[in-house]
């Protein structure tokens, strides 16, 4: 090779190498090649973890009814949450306390649902709650939630406990002040919801429990009934719900039962009201409704998804005989159908929301109820953690 040609060749290669390093963000002295941690993937999305502690003593039937009828309203509001432009992961745990049907040695407290993103399971468990008797130990309930739930995440995550009831916060063998201060040190905020007169809740230390962690104290009327507004768009959304259900492809040993439970929770929502079922459909079309543990469409979005690891015997009959390539094509087809349905539901929901706001009157005011109390606290505390929740 002639000298000038060799020089041009070296120059071109040097230029291409520089472009490569600039494009990859490589810097001279960069330790990423020596430090494996520097090559780790971006940290996962922020999370919202909520422990919901409900008094299930005899006087709390109204509280449980509100929780069942307002779950999907709460999820729909949380679906707007963003942090650093990303949608946070939502996990909710459910406890019942103050029920004489529970074990005395455990403080009349029971973990009903551990922290989970499986909203259908949460709904199922809410509908299983029954009231009975009452020895309400708030400090004990909070301590149990602190010790049993997996709170170990980033300090930037939103970690909240909501406890609702109507007996003095001071009852029981566990000092509520020590427990609340422990929660505060763990970055967990305690929000207290007194079922009754606002000043009575202050007198019985419900406000003090919240104040110890910079949480919110609120009072509600647990006997208020949720008022729904029927809209011209409800039937269309309900019809889309049936089509949406058809896009789910169960897998795994529990897959078929989880798919069946999805339909049961549709009916549970409808048992409250037709409009409540519509609200659930809107939740099912949101980014908060994920079923990666049993649905192949959601599971296929995970980085470690491998179709070859899916056992065919636990799949729907119509796809058991397909090869892996054909299964992936089928999954993608169902995924695209779901995206289109979710888009239509979202468009109808905009019109539905506008209609409800126009019809909203004093007779449809649900401000003094569980969902409003929870969302008031969540919005304020989310903002302090740099979450956007409009």
In sequence order, what are the helices and strands, one letter per element? HEHEEHHEHEHHEHHHHHHH
Shape: globular
Radius of gyration: 25 Å
Structural class: alpha/beta
Note the total helix count.
14
* CATH superfamily grouping of the largest domain: von Willebrand factor, type A domain
Give the strand order, joined by hyphens, for the main sheet. 3-2-1-4-5-6
Number of domains: 2
Note the main sheet: 6 strands, mixed
User: How many angstroms separate the termini?
Assistant: 67 Å
Nearest-integer average pLDDT: 89
Query: Percent of residues in helical segments?
Result: 40-55%
**Residue fraction in strands:** 5-15%
What is the CATH C-level name of the largest domain? Answer: Alpha Beta
The number of distinct β-strands equals 6
By CATH, the architecture of the largest domain is named 3-Layer(aba) Sandwich
Relevant terms:
alpha/beta; 6 strands; 2 domains; globular; six-stranded mixed β-sheet; Rossmann fold; 14 helices; 12% strand; 390 residues
Describe the SSE topology.
Blueprint: H1 3-24, E1 47-55, H2 61-78, E2 89-97, E3 109-116, H3 119-128, H4 138-148, E4 158-165, H5 176-185, E5 189-195, H6 198-203, H7 206-211, E6 217-220, H8 234-245, H9 255-272, H10 274-284, H11 296-299, H12 317-320, H13 324-359, H14 370-384
Parallel strand pairs: 1-2, 1-4, 4-5, 5-6
Antiparallel strand pairs: 2-3
Helix pairs in contact: 2-10, 2-14, 3-9, 4-5, 8-10, 8-13, 9-10
């Amino acid at each position: 090779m002639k000298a000038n040609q060799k020089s041009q060749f070296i120059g071109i290669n040097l230029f291409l190498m520089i472009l490569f390093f600039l494009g990859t963000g490589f810097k001279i002295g960069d330790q990423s090649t020596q430090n494996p941690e520097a090559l780790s993937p971006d940290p996962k999305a922020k999370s919202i973890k909520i422990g919901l502690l409900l008094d299930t003593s005899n006087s709390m039937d109204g509280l449980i009814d509100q929780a069942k009828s307002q779950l999907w309203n709460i999820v729909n509001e949380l679906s707007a949450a963003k942090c650093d432009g990303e949608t946070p992961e939502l996990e909710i745990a459910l406890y019942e306390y103050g029920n004489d049907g529970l074990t005395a040695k455990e403080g009349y407290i029971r973990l009903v649902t551990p922290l989970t993103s499986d909203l259908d399971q949460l709904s199922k468990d809410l509908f299983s709650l029954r009231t009975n008797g009452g020895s309400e130990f708030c400090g004990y309930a909070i301590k149990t939630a602190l010790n049993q739930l997996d709170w170990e995440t980033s300090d930037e995550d939103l970690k909240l406990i909501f406890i609702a009831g109507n007996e003095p916060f001071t009852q029981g063998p566990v000092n509520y002040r020590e427990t609340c201060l422990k929660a505060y040190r763990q970055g967990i905020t305690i929000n207290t919801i007194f079922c009754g007169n606002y000043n009575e809740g202050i007198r019985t230390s419900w406000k003090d429990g919240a104040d110890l962690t910079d949480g919110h104290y609120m009072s509600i009327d647990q006997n208020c009934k949720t008022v729904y507004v029927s809209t011209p768009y409800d039937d269309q959304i309900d019809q889309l719900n049936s089509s949406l259900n058809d896009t789910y492809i169960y897998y795994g040993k529990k897959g078929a039962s989880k798919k069946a439970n999805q339909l049961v929770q549709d009916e549970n929502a409808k048992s409250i009201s037709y409009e409540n079922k519509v609200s659930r459909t809107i939740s099912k079309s949101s980014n908060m409704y994920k079923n990666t543990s049993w649905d192949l469409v959601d599971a296929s979005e995970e980085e470690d998804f491998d179709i070859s690891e899916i056992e065919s015997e636990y799949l729907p009959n119509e796809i058991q005989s397909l090869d892996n390539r054909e299964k992936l094509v089928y999954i993608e087809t169902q995924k695209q159908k779901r995206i289109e349905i979710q888009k239509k539901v979202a468009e109808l929901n905009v019109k539905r929301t506008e209609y409800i706001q126009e019809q909203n009157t004093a007779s449809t005011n649900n401000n003094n109820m569980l969902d409003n109390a929870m969302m008031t606290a969540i919005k304020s505390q989310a903002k302090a953690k740099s979450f956007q929740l409009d």
